[in-house]
Amino acid sequence: MHEQSGNRRDFILYAGAAAAGLASTIALPPARAAQKKISFLTWNISDQQELFKQWIAEFKKIRPDVEVEWLDKNGTEYAAYYQTQVMAGTPPDIIDTQGALWLEYAAAGGLMDLTPYLEKDADVRARFNAAYLANWKLENKNYMLPFLLTKTMVMFNRTMFKASDIAEPPASFEQMMSSSAKMASGDKSGLLLLNFDWLYWPMFKMNGVDLLTADMKKAAFNTPQAVAVLEALTQQTAGGGINKISWTGRWTEPIGAFASGNVGMLMAHSPAFFVIRGQAPWLNANTFGVANAPGGWSTPNSHGWGISKGSRHPEEAWEFLKMATSERWTQRLSESRKVVTGNIASDKAILEAMRSQDPLAAQVLQTQLENTDKLTGNWPLPNDARVKQAFYPEIQNAVLGRKSAAQALKDAESKVNRVLAA
After folding, report:
1. Where do runs of H (alpha helix) occur along 196-270?
2. How far apart are CA 422 and CA 253, in angstroms?
3. What's this model's pTM, rounded to 2 decimal places?
4. What percent of the chain has pLDDT over 70?
5. What is the CATH number of the domain that holds 357?
6. Are 316 and 389 contained in the same domain?
7. Average pLDDT of the residues in 308-335
8. Alpha-carbon distance 27 to 87, whole Å?
9. pLDDT at 16 over 50
10. 417 and 330, same domain (yes or no)
11. Mean pLDDT of all residues in 373-388
């Protein structure tokens, strides 16, 4: 799973966009009488080519009058490609977005409100985990359907736990900091975090810190408790309890560091496990464990399906999404990609199968369906990217010793409030 690409302050409906390369395309030959064509754009999921071919063939049976095209772009190309197509008046009918990108698109009028479709097809709404479905709401309107679900959890190295006389994963922030300090020695550190897309925010939320006021109009994080949390993170970073890569790396670096076997805990989302397992010969049921973060708090970084407002065939696009998110096809996706999809029935089936076939992976995926009432870092902010850009550099300044925690939070507060007032 790749994090979202860089700065998207200029939204698709009015931004200039660089010309994009040719998209990877799969299309079945249209029937002679075909009058319509829809396309779906995915975010760096080219490994599912065979499954998407099957989707297209299946939909052809349902709607022989509709041709379907699949397009795929990696994270660095995706936004520019979509912008270009929107400006040309030919946006993909269906798009897959990750994290908070959908908010920018929806707020600027780029996505269809799917609420009327969900009200009309109540059985479709009922197939999904309600907490995850609500993750894609803006102003009480649902703009996306679940596709690939991921959220943060704590993975831990049992060997390092045992060597430091730590019996269980931490049940509180204080225990997490204490355990991290115990495991810090030489080139070993106790904890790694991922810092993009608010994936570190559970550290604050488990301490009762809110990013914004209830109306989301002002910063609410500059509190004595937040200062204490940031001071603890700074102290652990300086002492080696928290690996500095947590604040300077993105994806490859923290994953590689944990896979080396020299880090006690990693707070990341589920795709990290499958990458780490491929790099870590030490990883097995006796040496690896997984748990929810203290308090059950986690930040989602899921993929969802939306329909472009500029789609010429929205009804057909909705029919395609109904088929693709059905139990049959989500279960096949889960089997192929080792993910949960939000379809309640197929997620239950894949977990039951994996408990015997791949017990460690089953434990990881089980956390993705637990405590879904405690998702954080997923505020419905159309300017989410700008708020991140205002907030995180000041956190980095504190944990790397450039500013005091109090000063960093004060400066972050001013910057975030300016963004919110703009």
Report:
1. 202-205, 224-239, 245-248, 252-259
2. 35
3. 0.88
4. 92
5. 3.40.190.10
6. no
7. 97
8. 23
9. no
10. no
11. 95
Mean pLDDT of 181-191: 97
- Quick one: which H or E segment has residue 269? strand 263-269
The answer to whether residues 125 and 234 belong to one domain is no
Structural domain contains residue 6: no
DSSP string, 291-347: EPPGGG-B-B--EEEEEBTT-S-HHHHHHHHHHHTSHHHHHHHHHHH--B-SBHHHH
| Helix residue spans in 33-169 (DSSP H) | 49-62, 75-87, 101-107, 115-120, 122-126, 130-134, 158-163
Are 175 and 276 in a shared domain? yes
The answer to the question of residue 315 being in a domain is: yes
Among residues 20, 24, 1, the alpha carbon closest in space to that of 12 is found at 20
What pLDDT does 207 receive? 98
Count of domains observed in the chain:
2
Distances (CA, A) of 293 to 192, 237, 374: 13, 19, 11
Residue 41 lies in a domain: yes
- Cα–Cα distance measured from residue 390 to residue 121, given in angstroms and rounded to the nearest whole number: 41
Query: Per-residue confidence at 185, pLDDT binned at 50, 70, 90?
Result: very high
CA 331 to centroid of chain Cα atoms: 20
Domain that includes residue 109, residue range: 24-150+301-367
What does pLDDT average to over the chain?
A: 92
Q: Is the alpha carbon torsion for 280, 283, 287, 292 positive or negative?
A: positive
> Could you tell me if 72 and 170 lie in one domain?
no
Same structural domain, 256 and 335: no
Q: Tokens 């009488």 correspond to what residue?
A: 33
Q: Are residues 187 and 283 in the same domain?
A: yes
Q: How far apart are the first and last CA of the chain?
A: 32
CB count within 10 Å of CB 15 equals 15
Q: List, as own/partner pairs, every contact residues 163-168 make where C-beta atoms lie below 8 angstroms and the sequence separation is at least 24, other chains included.
A: 164/264, 166/264
Per-residue pLDDT tens over the stretch 36-74: 999 999 999 999 999 999 999 999 999 999 999 999 999
Q: Are residues 169 and 287 in the same domain?
A: yes
* Contact between 390 and 9 (Cβ < 8 Å): no
pLDDT digits (tens, 9 = 90+) for 107-146: 999 999 999 999 999 999 999 999 999 999 999 999 999 9
Q: Does residue 8 lie within any of the structural domains?
A: no
Query: Residues 19-54, buried b or exposed e (16+ Cβ, 10 A)?
Result: ebeebeeeeeebeeeeeeebbbbbbbbeebeebbee
CB 290 within 8 A of CB 273: yes
Assigned token pair, 79: 């936004």
